[in-house]
Write a structure and sequence with these properties.
The complex is a heterodimer of chains A (169) and B (454). Chain A has 169 residues and is mainly alpha-helical. Chain A is 66% helix and 2% strand. Classes of the chains: A mainly alpha (169), B alpha+beta (454).
Chain lengths: 169, 454
């Protein structure tokens, strides 16, 4: 896969991943720029991998975990102040969502990364462990701590029935 | 206590923070060119030939994202494309050859599959065929994100008087282009010939299903639990078959469900072999049902937001509530001047008399206030939207300023495409005519859902 093909077909998904990871457009863009400049310089190697996007996501993840250029903190769209303002206008569920996002923003970065990889990127614990360079047991420990902090109850997803893959790409 | 579904939904909302791919690539091109303008303190830069090569490749990549030309018109088109969801789902013929040989377009004569397509590139990212024993997908409805859908499957090619539809929760994962289908166990579904419409709520947690035959009702299913709440209209079967039916469901983000109502009294009783109307008359038009209640009477629990007098020279029959709940988009045959309302609905028709079928000779999309019923703006004219469109609106942004419609660009044989209407501009979605898309539903928010062969 050439860099141009990657940019045309996969870049938006990588940028969305960075946005969910950071919760801030500007930070997502900064991280993406850093990663893509480095990725391009090594594209001969990355482009020849089985899963170039997986590798680039891993770079985004590492950049996010080590990002300390500025004294920013993670404040996603649901800052508590925003939640309080919007509660009077929107339904309770949206105020609750904003509050949840604010709490996600306060989690340690590795815990937040595990949540994003598991619940946004739909990665298995084994894949998350590969991305983070740790053991699956460590991933589960991070997830358990984060879910406890957010008061998330584990229960079946919608439908509560057998899932199966329908992709026939 | 929160659920994992709450967590997924919350994280998905952060996608709104996604930066533009084109902007990112252009910034990289600036930085790697070594110029001062694009540099920020502390950035690591490549130098020399590597940087020059990077500029060439990145600019090429940006061009791929933004199209073959850098004209202002093209930039405007790119803005339009980036104002709608990145991924959408559409129905296509499972066997394109059989579809072509049928000589028909958009009718329920061939089995349909679902495809996930990329709005920017037009690429088909995934294809989903209905799991056995189901042979065709008949409708799609989507959540506010660009990857959560509900598909409706039938085990027969035509509407059945005995078989019930099956709903599947479909989740697209852009990381590997896979679609996960989960069959939904929804109790009390009507047979497929009775289902008028279905719509997934913007947060993906509720599915509303409208039944157009006795009992005429709307049921809202809570997808995590399968719990159902039902609002019923007390209509006798003879009237429910073609009069006073519900149709065209659309959600607001606050749990208000808009539906199109054909006009009816609250109920009817049989007196000496004749039907006698009972209760308040509910004129045809758009009604707003507050689904945050426990269920009950469909008409008593709903508010008539826009009415349509049977005698009015306005061919409005398709209504869509904007996700922010403030406006209703209507397809009208003749625009109403801004500030005015649709003609009065005071005239009460004789019960049981079917309303005239509106003609769509030159339909226009117009926005009305959901609270006052006054015309707010004309969203477009049919001239700007293309030569011919189906009456559906397939996606609406929160405020109703951007919509996705389906139609042809030129009269005659030009292919059907999905396009974005924003202001007076119509922007075709690239690749939306190949494979030939059945004109039912790309289905994103609020994703109206249509039954074929109605």
């Amino acid at each position: 896969m050439t860099f141009e093909e990657f940019a045309a077909s996969r870049l938006p998904a990588v940028l969305a991943f960075a946005a969910v990871l950071t919760g801030q457009r500007a930070t997502a863009e900064d991280i993406a720029q850093e990663v893509l400049i480095r990725a391009y310089a090594r594209w001969d190697t990355i482009g020849g991998l089985d899963r170039p996007e997986f590798y680039v996501r891993k770079m985004v993840l590492n950049e996010f975990l080590s990002w300390r250029r500025r004294s920013w903190r993670l404040i996603p769209a649901g800052d508590p102040a925003t939640a309080a303002d919007s509660a009077s206008d929107l339904a309770d569920q949206y105020a609750e969502r904003a509050a949840l996002l604010a709490e996600i923003g306060k989690l340690p970065r590795r815990q937040r990364a595990v949540l994003v990889l598991r619940y946004y990127d739909d990665r298995s614990d084994a894949e998350i462990a590969e991305l983070l360079g740790c053991r699956p047991g460590t991933v589960r420990a991070y997830a358990a701590r984060a879910l406890a902090a957010l008061r998330v109850e584990l229960r079946p997803e919608p439908g509560n029935l057998t899932s199966y893959q329908g992709s026939e790409v | 206590m929160r659920t994992e579904h709450d967590l997924r939904s919350a994280l998905r909302t952060l996608e709104q923070e996604t930066p533009s791919a084109g902007e990112v690539l252009h910034h990289i091109a600036e930085r790697t060119s070594g110029g001062v303008a694009g540099r920020r303190p502390g950035r690591r830069l490549m130098a020399g030939a590597a940087a020059a090569a990077a500029v060439v490749a990145i600019v090429a990549a940006a061009a791929l994202l933004s199209g073959p030309t850098a004209s202002r018109g093209h930039a405007v088109a790119q803005d339009a494309l980036q104002s709608v969801p990145r991924y959408y789902m559409a129905l296509v013929p499972t066997d394109p050859r059989a579809f072509a040989q049928s000589g028909l377009s958009g009718e329920a004569t061939v089995p349909a599959s679902a495809v996930v397509k990329d709005t920017l590139t037009g690429l088909v990212l995934a294809t989903v065929r209905p799991p056995k024993p189901y042979i065709t997908f008949i409708g799609i409805t989507g959540a506010a994100d660009d990857r959560t859908f509900v598909l409706t499957a039938w085990s027969t090619i035509a509407p059945s008087l005995t078989q019930r539809p099956k709903f599947f929760y479909a989740r697209f994962n852009p990381a590997d282009d896979a679609v996960t289908l989960t069959p939904l166990a929804l109790p009390g579904l009507p047979v497929s010939s009775s289902v008028a419409n279905a719509a997934l709520s913007p947060d993906g947690t509720k599915l509303a299903v409208a039944s157009k035959t006795s009992p005429v009702q709307i049921t809202v299913y809570s997808l995590p639990s399968g719990a159902a709440r039902t609002w019923t209209a007390n209509l006798p079967a003879i009237l429910a078959s073609g009069f006073g039916v519900v149709d065209q469901l659309s959600w607001s983000r606050t749990g208000i469900l808009g539906f199109d109502w054909g006009g009816s009294y609250a109920g009817y009783v049989s007196v000496h072999g004749r039907l006698k109307p009972e209760g308040r008359y509910s004129p045809p038009g758009e009604y707003l049902l507050n689904t945050n209640t426990a269920g009950g009477s469909l008409l008593a629990d709903s508010q008539n937001a826009l009415c349509l007098a049977p005698s009015a020279l306005v061919a409005a029959a398709y209504f869509y509530l904007t996700p922010d709940g403030t406006k209703i988009i209507a397809l009208v045959g003749r625009p109403i001047p801004v500030g005015q309302t649709l003609p009065s609905c005071s005239a009460t028709p004789h019960p049981g008399v079917a309303q005239p079928t509106p003609e769509f000779s030159a339909p226009e999309l117009e926005e009305f206030s959901a609270t006052t019923g006054q015309a707010v703006s004309i969203l477009d004219t049919s001239r700007s939207r293309g030569a011919r469109t189906d009456p559906g609106v397939y996606w609406i942004n929160p405020s109703g300023s951007v919509v996705v419609v389906h139609g042809t660009l030129k009269p005659g044989s030009s292919p059907w495409v999905f396009g974005i209407v924003s202001g007076s501009r119509f922007t075709p979605i690239p690749g939306s005519s190949s494979p030939p898309t059945l004109p039912q539903s790309p289905a994103t928010e609020p994703a109206p859902w249509a039954v074929l062969a109605l």
